[in-house]
Task: structure prediction
Amino acid sequence: MQWIGAGSTAVYKTPMEEKIFDLQDLKPGWVWLAGAGPGDPGLLTLYCVRALQQADAVVYDALVGADVLKLAREDCLLIYAGKRGGKPSAQQPDISARLIALAREGKRVLRLKGGDPFVFGRGGEEALALREAGIPFRIVPGVTAGIAGLAYAGIPLTHRDTNHAATFLTGHNAMGVVPDSVDWRALATGAPVIVMYMAMKHIEAICNRLMRAGRRADEKLAFISSATTADQRVVVTTLGEAAETARREGVGPPAIVVLGAVVGLHEDLDWLPAALADMEGR
Ligand code: SAH
Result:
């Protein structure tokens, strides 16, 4: 590798081959609460890869892909802590208790969640339980689906001509229903781009609320399902037709929904098909 401007050449080694960064180790008795990103292993952070290589136990959620788990040690304990979609989770205290018990056994524990652990991922609750139990922990951010999904669909989250703010919204609360705590009028008027997680189940109700609160029915909306995986699919429609389009096209979870003028850039910036074709031809 040539370092332009640095005046010297250096042999490039990947972080796997040589420790080129001084990263903390996942130590016995510790829990790392990490995000695995939305699917593509190329989006893992170095901390996450390190933790996968060092962990004695990995406690993972439904949205963590098999490709990512392949990086765990062969003798690692892989514990599934997935929940049934949309249902209120009775298991959450069990998961936290499990993490605490594993750490107290002196294990190096990786708690792995899809996307980012602190974005609609209940990471805060688990971190609070660890703090209360006196277990040392590190938070490892991940690339959240609402960022990566848009990027992989060629939809910029912000664009100078269209929006100077963006809002993340969850389509259901802890009880599995559309959150009442959301000020829909403020959202409709103050959030030019709205990125929605867990919105498929109640998509019709959500779209209706936004339209009742003043959003135009012809505004562009995109569904990005299984973002960053081999099954990624992008369906562009309008706010008024979203529910019907989702039904007709069979848009399934997991999916990110994005509403706003930036969706119009998808047509020009849809880079993924060419990148995938190029990979196949290599
Ligand atoms: N902590 C996660 C979000 C968990 S909530 C994150 O930061 O990404 C679960 C929701 O995330 C799903 O209902 C869906 O809306 C979204 N999601 C997660 N992975 C996704 C993917 N690969 N493609 C599309 N949406 C995804």
In short: Residues 38-39, 63, 113-116, 119-121, 144-145, 149, 197-198, 224-229, 253-256 surround S-adenosyl-L-homocysteine (CB under 6 Å).
